[in-house]
Amino acid sequence: MADPAKETVSAAGPTGGQHAFYARDAIVPFPVIEHAAGVFMTGTDGSRYMDVSSGPVVSNIGHGNARVADAMAAQVKTVEYVFPRLAASRVSAAYATRLSGLAGPGFERAHLASGGSEAMENAIKFLRQYAVATGAPSKRRIITCEPSYHGATIATLAMNGEVTMAGFLDGFATPSLKVPAPMTYRVPDGVDARSYADRCVQALERTIVDQGPETVLAFVIEPVGGLSTGCVVPPDDYMRGIRQVCSHYGVHLVFDEILCGMGRTGKFLAARHWPDAKPDIVTMAKGMASGYSPLGAMLAPADMVDELAALTGFEFQYSYNAHPVSCAAGMAVLDEYQRHDLIARAETGGAQLRAGLEDLQTEHAVIGDIRGLGMLLAVELVADRATKAMLPNDLRPTDRIRIHGLDNGLLIYSRPTSGGKYGHWFIVAPPLTITPDEIDELLRRLDGTLAAFGAEMRALGAL
Fold it and tell me: Comparing C-alpha atoms, which of 235, 221, 233, 239 is closest to residue 192?
């Protein structure tokens, strides 16, 4: 277990910050970080940690980048804030144009936001406004997957495929319609990942037909999963299938690339892995400003945006939309992507990382599956690899792997999802700037983490 002498913040003790709101039975201590550079973060007691998961898959360019800091400082000294409804910001307009150019044809317009939840809300509001303005006011229902994650506002919480939220949402918000996510490791008996994915496509079509196509506004999916699914990568046939179904019934297809976009998977947009399944709308955030400032975006085609602008416009605003300092950070982050060829490094570094994880799988029986794309990977933890038996929820395996990670100098993104209904996993997605030698070091530390975790699970009778 973690050394109690190390300075940490825990939900079990008094604190004036965010941690005061966390559950009192939380067993994971939180180190107090004083300094960060590259893939390393240093606590106030001198403990040094590798950022295994880029926080919640945010810090794509690593920590402590002076060029980004300088760009933000320079922007503050010139124009620190412009409200888009009253005036325009040169840096915000330039950033939107650059982002759309990287996204490519079909995504010529970028509506900037302060983060992922806000970007997803903008996407749904934009599609709803478009439906009302173009004579389809009955289109109001959203379909999402179970499990899935799309944000933390009330509306996006209702979109999430998170079974533990049912009581919270009951009578409080309108949940989206849910269809099964194309999980690839745990599938029903008698089917494989591909045939199960076919069932998921059929479930989408059946839901649209049963609900009435004239009432369904959009189907929203993470093209490569995040923590909600443990980085599931759907089969190609599934992606083609959902595109065909949505096109046939006039339902907008929305790709939530808040986590998997910005080059994480080896392409700027994960959507580019499936050119014949192109979405109508893409949402992005996290890596856009890589943690240096809040930033998100909804990407949309010019023809839709221009048509709506001619009819009613889309004028929903937040105070910090297109914030100049955030956009200056975003521009500097894109410069770092270009300077270090980070999208290519996501592919090559991801291959090295995956190979190392597969080697660890042969050594540690607690690893049931390794999945993902590029440098967005997940490790699923099991009680029995042969049967895929899950570890008991009451042992809180995702919390315990985090604690063993801290003991081995790792900060690991892992928490219970859907009450453990679909399994337990953690994310391996370090900053794209990580070097080959640092990947080897991360794997060595992870080896020690898994050995300690496995020994604890055996001592508790879980293996």
Answer: 235
Query: What DSSP letter does each residue of 138-189 carry, written as one string?
Result: T--EEEEEESB---SSHHHHHHSB-GGGHHHHTTTS-PPEEEE---SSS--T
* 3-class SS of residue 135: coil
Share of the chain above pLDDT 70, in %: 95
CA distance 287 to 226: 13
Beta strands in 265-336 (DSSP E): 281-284, 296-300
Computed over its alpha carbons, how large is the radius of gyration of the chain? 22
| Structural tokens at position 417 | 């999802």
Q: Say yes or no to pLDDT of 203 above 50.
A: yes
Q: Which residue segments constitute the domains of the chain, with CATH numbers given?
A: 8-64+343-459 (3.90.1150.10), 66-340 (3.40.640.10)
| pLDDT (0 to 100) of residue 27 | 61
**All residues at 6 or more sequence positions from 432 whose CB lies less than 8 Å from its CB, including other chains:** 60, 61, 62, 263, 264, 340, 342, 343, 345, 346, 349, 375
pLDDT tens for residues 108-144? Answer: 999 999 999 999 999 999 999 999 999 999 999 999 9
- CA-CA distance, 429 to 357, in Å (whole number)? 12
Alpha-carbon gap, residue 375 to 427, rounded angstroms: 10
